[in-house]
From TrEMBL:
<dbReference type="InterPro" id="IPR012938">
    <property type="entry name" value="Glc/Sorbosone_DH"/>
</dbReference>
<dbReference type="InterPro" id="IPR011042">
    <property type="entry name" value="6-blade_b-propeller_TolB-like"/>
</dbReference>
<dbReference type="Pfam" id="PF07995">
    <property type="entry name" value="GSDH"/>
</dbReference>
<protein>
    <submittedName>
        <fullName>HHIP like 2</fullName>
    </submittedName>
</protein>
<dbReference type="InterPro" id="IPR011041">
    <property type="entry name" value="Quinoprot_gluc/sorb_DH_b-prop"/>
</dbReference>
<feature type="domain" description="Glucose/Sorbosone dehydrogenase">
    <location>
        <begin position="58"/>
        <end position="385"/>
    </location>
</feature>
Amino acid sequence: CCETNRTRFCNLLHLHDEDYCFPNVLKNTALNRNLGLVVEGHKGCLQLCLTEVANGLRNPVLMVHANDHTHRMFVAEQVGVIWVYLPDGSRLEEPFLDIKSIVLATPWIGDERGLLGMAFHPKYKYNGKFYIYYSYMDKNRVEKIRISELKVLASDVNKADPRSERNLLELEEPAANHNGGQLLFGVDGYMYLFTGDGGKAGDPFGKFGNAQNKSTLLGKVLRIDVDGKSPDGKPYRIPPDNPFVSDPKARPEVYAYGVRNMWRCAVDRGDPVTKKGRGRIFCGDVGQNRFEEIDIVVKGGNYGWRAKEGFECYDTKLCHNSSLDDILPIFAYGHSVGKSVTGGYVYRGCESPNLNGLYIFGDFMNGRLMALQEDKTNKWKKQDICIGSTRACAFPGMIGSYSKFIISFAEDEAGELYFMSTSYPSAYAPHGSLYKFIDPARLVIKDVFLSYCLPGNF
């Protein structure tokens, strides 16, 4: 489920590694101990630890990998800079990309604008293409979001070519908030883009808001083919099976609608053995003033906003409309629990097999970490995650505390899970950190790993 080449694997193995996942590792009894359930604390929460991978970041909004077997991590700051971190945790001196001069970002606390999304082309290893999603102001001082394609420099795999930028899509933003920002590629090879409803409060645009209006691209999940062009000249193609391609009242890019402001979505890799769940797209959709929700995105789905917020009515007139036909979230929580969901990932890594299948996410406002577990009836049960039991995390390099404001979650090329947070949520404040989750029950003797890199053990 991780690195399958012996030489690359052994080169990547470092003394601070607590576990590893080379094929047949589960046949080793020393690495097989403490398999089962995650240890629960006295309050019933899941006991996990952290290791700090990086700090001094300016509102780190995302971390992605290129799926090119280099195991590099690309960390983007909201201000418009993308850094490269090597497998040993070191950061290259020069950024991968610096577009501060064109990204619209301010030092105001809580400003949602900036560099918000990044995704590598599924064939990046061969074509060098990647995509970014950012806020900017045009020459007429109109605020917009832009989705662009760029290429890596042919002469340096750790530097992007800013001159290669090709604009794919621009959308005018009627307000400064709810800018969306997620970019990802599905298992179908198409790009998915997640836009906000246009901002302000209550989606006040038009008769029933942007999110329920399929003729606008705001408040939507969009799906496009970046490897083709449309007959009308658009620099992308519309997938022929998009759900509304035959609806003259809908934009053909729309894949799902009824979205308020989905903040962080992720594709499930699927169970390492059975592949169950592979391809599901999980999103956290930030609520108005009562509920936060977690959704699984499906083709043509209506996720309810502004008719509903979570499981409840928001706009009574729209909510009771018989044509709403909305898809309910898999989980929602009230504002006594948290006030701004940050979507996460389904854990599918190898170092912490006890976490397999758990959807791990958090709340931006209060720093709460949570996990959802699906049962046999397809219902989802929530458990809190406890970080920092002194006894459980008393290992070299482990920490039991983190900065409060959870901005984003991430996974590395091996499927291990991380999150980014800050103590001061400003795009210009260098108070952000990147943390990796560790299951303390799975810490094992490091000499066992190293012996597996000796000749004859593969």
